[in-house]
Write a structure and sequence with these properties.
By secondary structure, this protein is α/β, with parallel strands linked by helices. It has helices at residues 43-50, 89-99, 104-117, 133-145, 163-178, 190-196, 214-221, 234-238, 263-268, 286-296, 299-303, and strands at residues 3-14, 17-28, 32-36, 58-63, 74-77, 151-155, 182-186, 199-204, 207-213, 224-229, 243-249, 252-257, 278-283. The strands form three sheets. A six-stranded mixed β-sheet has the order 5-6-7-3-8-9, with helices on both faces. The protein binds adenosine-5'-triphosphate. The site of adenosine-5'-triphosphate has 11 residues, from strand 2 and helix 1. Adenosine-5'-triphosphate binds at residues 14, 17, 19, 37, 39-45. InterPro entries: AAA+_ATPase, ABC_transporter-like_ATP-bd, ABC_transporter_ATP-binding, DrrA1/2-like_C, P-loop_NTPase.
Amino acid sequence: METMLRVDQLSKAFKNKQAVRDVSFDVRKGEIMAILGPNGAGKSTTIRNIMGIMYPDEGAISFSGHDKIPRYKIGYLPEERGLYKNVKVMDILLYLAELKDYPLKKARERALAYLKKFDLEGHENSSIEELSKGMGQKVQFISSIIHEPELLILDEPFSGLDPVSQDLFKTEIRKLAEKGTAILLSSHQMNLVEEMCDRLFMMHNGERIIYGDMDDVKERYANFKCTIRGKNDQHELEGLPDVERVEQDEDTSVLYLTRDVEPVSWLKHLPENLTVQELSIDRISLHEIFIDIATTGNIEQKEGATHA
Ligand SMILES: Nc1ncnc2c1ncn2[C@@H]1O[C@H](COP(=O)(O)OP(=O)(O)OP(=O)(O)O)[C@@H](O)[C@H]1O
């Protein structure tokens, strides 16, 4: 697949804070790439460097192999929401399309079609302040795609949306990728990321710690966990071989197992005095991989396995 965006060894510091260090990744035509990481990991700084809102201290950013990134080919939904409050919806959409040199007639047609799709038909002449927060967010999303960008950067597109609107956004984002748009999506909603994204790029303390195909990453980092329903002593469970940590909630215990555990032979070594009403073994979710990295700093183990 053709590379649309390439970020190569990007570094950026603010005074004495190294916000991004030596970060590289690419986004290809027709894929949804997730950019993930705990608060303060450096995601927005990376995105702002791509958008030219700030400049890298070191490293390079290129678009389809060119150093100069053509702004009209990029769509951007920033984390900070906000459109001119007292301007009419259609006027804003046409104004933003015009800024990107997009033909106005086509922009109007697209705006009407998208407003209909997002249940905002008839709101062309409403001003933004007359809309609810979610409705305003829909208009802002439309403004980021009105000019048919080749690269679309979405910073937390789902925050503040109700489940129906979330589904609308999900469907539209997928459709755009199917039509060939390269999409870089930042989100803290791991279930949505797991469901939608083809590849992911995870940052921690400004550095890249995981990078690869969603399926490969899950197979590689998703250790097994064993859930036991039954009253058991947490310390005893923590003392079992190959158990990294135990979470207990009333009579349910979740045992997070170390990497490379072979579940069948691990089960054979469980003590006979355990109380077991139910027992299941599953792989941890992307959500849990994220928590594991963000809280235990289990990074060295992850780092060796990053791949392009
Ligand atoms: N303009 C700035 N001046 C000084 N420090 C900054 C600035 N912008 C970001 N930082 C610092 O850089 C680090 C990375 O911030 P950034 O906003 O990129 O993180 P993030 O991953 O987007 O976080 P979040 O998920 O909370 O949005 C943080 O420690 C932050 O305090």
